[in-house]
Queue: 2 jobs
Job 1
Amino acid sequence: MTEKTLPLSGIRVIDFGHIVAGPFCVRLLADLGADVVKVETSTRQGRTGARRGAPRGGNNGRTPHLYHINRNRRSLDLNLKTERGLAVAKRLVEVADVLVENYSSGVMDRLGLGYAALAAINPRLIYASMASFGQTGPRRGWTGMNVNLQAASGLMLATGAEGDPPIGISNSWNDYIGGLHAAIAILGALSERQKTGNGRHLDVSQFEGSVAMLGSLVLASAVTGKPPARLGSRSPSAAPQGVYRCAGEDQWCAISVQSDEEWQRLRVLVGCTLTGATLADRRAAHDAIDAAIEAWTGGLAPAEVERRLSALGIHAAAMRRGNELEGAKEWQQILHPLREPGAEGKRVVGLPFSFRARAPIAVTEAPRMGSGGRETLRDWLKLDEAAVEEMMRAEPA
Amino acid sequence: MARVLDLTTIVGAYGTRVLAELGHDVLRIEDRGGDALRRSEPLLGTRNLESSAFHQFLNAGKRSVALDLASDDGKRILRALVAQADAVVASLPLPLSEDDLLAAKPDLVLVAIDDGAPELCAYASSGLLAITGDPESKPVMMGGHVPLSAVGVHVALAAAAALFAKDRTGEGQIVDVSAAQCLAALAEQSWVEYSASGETMERLGAKGGVTALAGALPCADGHWMISVPPDPRGWANFVELVPDPAFRDDHALADEALRRERKEEILQRVAAWSTKQKKNEIVEDAQRRHIPATVVTNPLELVDDPQLLARDFLRPVEHPDFGKINFPAGALASLRHQPMSFAPRLGEHTAAVLREIGYSDADIARLKEQGVVAA
């Protein structure tokens, strides 16, 4: 590896993913340096958000969210329900390192692209399936969207305070968590292949990824026989801690007091009459303390609360909405400019960590349907233009 | 299999657990007095250094080496451990300088984690708080330290990538992970939505989802979560499931856009029906009709979940302290059928590990007597 290559440079990945979870897993691999081709079908649009022949510019024919999820790869427009399309896919599989798919259990088998069929032509292939509940077990055939898995994993009843209804997060949280776990499984299998020479099937369950994130509470429930306490935004080890209403409509600031000394400073500032000398005292009087804090924060903007408390060495953070993110330091660090002609000025979210002394990833736009796929055929299969043309002649139908 | 020294706080500890699930030999290097993770509530029985649920889950599959890291002798042992390790995964501040670590092991993989602000503050700054909670009530952080697990899973990704690169090239590298950046990255959709449309994503309680009809609705014995696919067949299947004549007769509702406009009204009618039904029965019926539906589960209901048991995620075990329980092995341990040992007692493996790196029994006895190690 030369000084500036990334961990997955030269690793070839075929993306059979759709919606968010699969393509996001693939994007992580792409951001780590992998060479990715997305196999999608112009005759069955929508699930990857790409429409054939959409004009260049804008989001290349994809919805904004799917545009971001599908960047850093080329697109091959292939109808897998034709023999010829299937044959082209298998040619790519022969020389690929990794395949990612997040169809319901059984779909890839029906297409003739199941693990057993593909391992027969490339035993080094690492084949990651990402069905909602996995390929085995009583729920293997179940279908589930992000919200279903948020609900089934325990997250919605581990979040919120006692007596609250189920509480979820409004974004595709579960797809991200599933994609991250799948990417790690793939990296582990790549390391093993380095030693054994063998690929493998990775039967990832998105559901299990989300349950594992809450594993400590599942273990606690198994031992105690009770559901875990719903703490709202409070903490057993820091009090007071909470989200406090500020001036303005639906404006909030988070505050977390980490020590007795910090509390005494906050107590004086907000004029709280409760002493609350110890953590236990403050936890016992949390409601009354919260009322005193909110009487003070209610007259100030969240950013002002953050500023004044930070000046006193007390942790506070204004709740940021989508329109308040871009200027923040951590956002400046994860937003990367697209490096290709025609995309100047556009930025996308990249990996939230960096390999020191390596070049930053070169992020490219999500491709239009079918854009760049023939170059992948040429590069991976070492074919000339004419041979690629011949291969794709009948495609798409 | 790589040897990984784990010097993370609770912020990164899920990451090193995942590395153990991948089959790596993870040595948790702990202070002799036990760290904050071992004291994190909830507790499983009497308060002691083994009773934290977070310790018992997050340290499973690891070995424990307990050192006095403030002492020169302790630092010398740590250097010797680093010299025979492949990776160090550590929260800042590092226990030895980067130069010292690399001097001990020039081809080291070092994952350095900036834990950043307290969990709730990081969650608020990232953009995630604004999209978690009921719109009529206050925003709320995810429970169970899930935001910290979300940092940890990125730690594991970074470490696994660097370890693979080392397998290919023999070269180590330094990876900087920032907890604040990890949480911000997971708020991507909020930024994309605003950049693309000028709209801000907001809290939706449990009625989020990309389809018009999604939400957690009451049953006689809890809640179920429905997400009706946007295509006409999805709606047709749904009408078969929920026997409300108003749905069957109103053909306009076959249109997803119209359903979006009338979401609240429709969900109220569905709730009026489902509130008399049992959650597991509705969900199984819905799944037979290919409708994405699940039970809204609390963690207690997961402890004997048939799917988790069937797939080796939950493992029936006899735990020395807790008796017969179904132990959550983890999402990668499950798919790899990786054996997972119970969380180690503080210093349980100090002596064995020191012997592995060349210390004699007499050395170890002396270090123990001097208070440099706990074994």
Note: The radius of gyration of chain B is 25 Å.
Job 2
Amino acid sequence: MNRKNFEITGKIFILLIAIFSFLLASSIPVQAERQKFLFGSAIAHTGKFARSGANLKNAYDYWAKRVNDLGGIEVGGKKYPVEIVYYDDKSDPKTTTKLVEKLITRDKVDLIFGPFSSLCVGPSSTITEKYKVPMLEAAGNARPLFKRGFKYLFCTLRPADELADPYLRLLTRQSPKPKSVAIIAPKSPFYMSAAKGFKAYAEKYGLNVVHYETYPVEMQDITPILQKVKAKNPDILCVGSHTVVAMMVMKQSKEIGFNPKAYCFSFGTLVPDFAKELGKDAEYVMEYVSISANAPYSDPLFGTAKHFVTSFKREYGISPDSTQTAAMAGGIAFIKAIQRAGVIPPLDEKKRMKVRDEMAKLDLITAAGPVRFDPTGINEANPLGISQYQNGKAVCVDPSDWAETKFVYPTPKWKDR
Amino acid sequence: MFAQVLLNGVLIGGIYASVAVGFSLIFGVLRIVNIVHGEFIMLGAFITYWLYKLMGIDPFLSLPLTFFCLYIFGFLLQRYVINKIMEAPEIMSLLLTFGLSLIIANIALLAWKGDYRLVNPEYAGAHLNLASLTIPYIRLSTFLFALVSVAGLQLFLQRTDIGRAIRATSQSKDGARLQGVSPALIYAITFGLGAAVAGVAGSLLSLSFSVFPAMGGDYLLFSFFIVVVGGMGHLPGALAGGFILGILQSLITNYLSAGLTYIIMFCILYVMLIVRPTGIFGKGIVE
């Protein structure tokens, strides 16, 4: 390289450093002037949880819009608006972890809304724990996450291994009473936790577990497993699931002519894609819900449960599923904890610790259901009901005071749908 | 039950064979390990999905269009991108096709999001009960179509002038050139054919499995297994490899545990590479 080239290269290099430094400096938020609460969420916009992540993000946005429409969170007589900073974690737990650290250290968010799935909540919550930032999450309820003694992790869902109760309680009240159950699940924290719960509750309700199997999460062709299950002729099929698993189980069950008296999925059937892609093959599928328009709850932010469900439906075209309901309840829990702690933005470590302590003490009713965290940080008061697809729509069928219509049992034959 | 297990394995094995045959062909002629193969499968599946969803075109009727689109795409990709590094060390083709696969998969992710989609025609659940056997029509049809596409490719290579030119180039690039064959053109045609067959396999897979931008990865893995077992570059070997994989998966899932499938698969792959790198028929290419 001659001297002239060397000089030009040097100048370009210095210019690039100057531009980079300017961009860096101008992008650092000025903390002292912030008059709003800043929330952060690294959540799936793409990847295998894209659809469920988008649904959860809708719920966070809906909460933020509602809060801002009312002027913001009131602390000490003054209202502070809220803003949520989002990043796409690409459904990858490692990316979630990096982005949550970025939200805390670079964006200086006050509090964190959790990602989608136990898989992403698990590792990213180690970061929020390290920096003492409360994380409120509504989509990661695998039991092992709450056995780690974390203090800053709060989940507004019930633990995954307790979700089986409403399905099997409802089914064992039917006539003729089902006798046997088969349980399958991919090997991933949430699915397996849900499957263990199905097994424990099946035994509690006197059902015979004729098949229990977990399989690699990458496995797309589950026909061989369903063939084994079909050969044992169970009355009920319980699946630890997200949307994709549920879709494949229904499609492949039909292919091999397997039709148990009831299909129970732990999650994933209430996203619009499920019914859209499967059409009438989605009929009679059951999934738990934690709200119904008929539920007797209300709060100042959303009004009654009926108002909450109908206005959400008007905005997004679907009734809120369990994670969306939990996100809404969690948002209200954050507001209450902030108000009781009496802290204003920006929140430093001391203020965040105060919010955390108030979160742990909460016992409140929201339009999206009650919130009361047990010592491990999970919502022990989260109510559970059951929805079932009927005529292309998921409708609440249990408990009776929530029910919008009657439960259909047993499932009609494939050809009669 | 055993007959049912075996039948499941055979039906899925046929589709696996069609998944891998294009991969084997491209390696046999161009001597490159084509990592974009999985994305060809994904694109084929999406073509079928969109034609079905937007225009109501039956998935089986979309096969010719998938073949045509992927052929053109593969041809152009080889001619204007991959051809640039044909003389470079093999690691370059590996890196380039890996990069291309990331680009294609991420463009697909941007365009179609990460949603998992289904091709679920009215007849999807129809099945035939034969004695104690259940034969899903969809699986049977995709199996037959997969076999037709593999046989068609083999016939094309055996019976047509272009096929002979492809085989000649595979055996000796310089020898073929002396006979007036342009290796650069043959490479592009071969790559196009490999892409087209992979695309058709993707279309067939979309009838039984979910369609999403990252779906190619698993099928690329299966293709590796199949061509190593059947012999790299040996097309009848890919057929045998496909059946072996299908039956193996079915047997392991039924009689051992589904969790062991990948472990056993990779143990076999490892052993084959050490003990018999030319595949079960001993006709694969080893360099």
Note: The two ends of chain B are 43 Å apart (CA to CA).
